[in-house]
Design a protein that fits this description.
Radius of gyration: 18 Å
Strand order of the largest sheet: 3-2-1-4-7-10
Biased composition (Pro residues): 1-10
CATH architecture: 3-Layer(aba) Sandwich
Subcellular location: Cytoplasm
CATH class: Alpha Beta
Number of strands: 10
GO molecular function, one term: protein-lysine N-methyltransferase activity
Helix content: 25-40%
Family: Belongs to the class I-like SAM-binding methyltransferase superfamily. EFM4 family.
CATH superfamily: Vaccinia Virus protein VP39
Oligomer: single chain
Number of domains: 1
Enzyme class: transferase
Largest sheet: 6 strands, mixed
Length: 260
Amino acid sequence: MTAPASPPTPSHAQRAHQPLPDTIPKPSSSIRSPIPPPSPLTCSWNKLYTRELSNHASDPHDIGTVWFDDSDAEAKMVRFLDGLAGLPRSSASILDLGCGNGSMLLALRAGDWTGRALGADYSPQSVALARQVAAAEALGGGGDCPPLEFREWDIMSGPYAAVLDGAQESGWDVVLDKGTFDAVCLSGEKIQDRRLCELYCARVLPLVKKGGVLLVTSCNWTEDELTRWFQREGGGVDYPSFSFGGVKGQTISTLCFRKE
């Protein structure tokens, strides 16, 4: 699972192999985006989650935004993991990158995935919301099921020791990305003249243990394009298809990559 030599461009009408453009289109302007996520260029994630913290405090049933909910992405990701060989639900460790309100880990707990589960997000308000929602859902652990964990951590710059600890010091069985890579691709920030999205795979790789899997869900990249970002070894999840310009695609792409 290594980064490609030349990153793909998010082309939807064509799948031309050409250098990454100077401006990556926002998911909100893409024909493949079922919902318009707030761009970090125009909206503060902390502001969003501060509002959702307040909303949840007033109404515990309002857990906030669930990304790709219109495509039932979380349920499909859970079902995909259920059918993946070598992943026991009782013990598989799970790291959710860009956890938001923690809804993905809540869905896995509801599906009897009872191993250690950690949600990481660079927004402190997101982490506070995830903890608040988990507490309201009474998912504090019990018996052999450890409590859900949530930590503030920046995938692109945070120290690995913050998320690689204990039994997961050498990596996690499952690393989840539901829209986080999309958000990273929106950033114009560069490190040593390279876009963050070009460095993403190299940052994620150490988080996955040998034999573990990375499950990526995107609304802004086709399966072929995701495959070029992360060398594919695994399967995909089916979503409703559409046709545009003679090319058949999906509104959402989810692919599984295994670390050898």
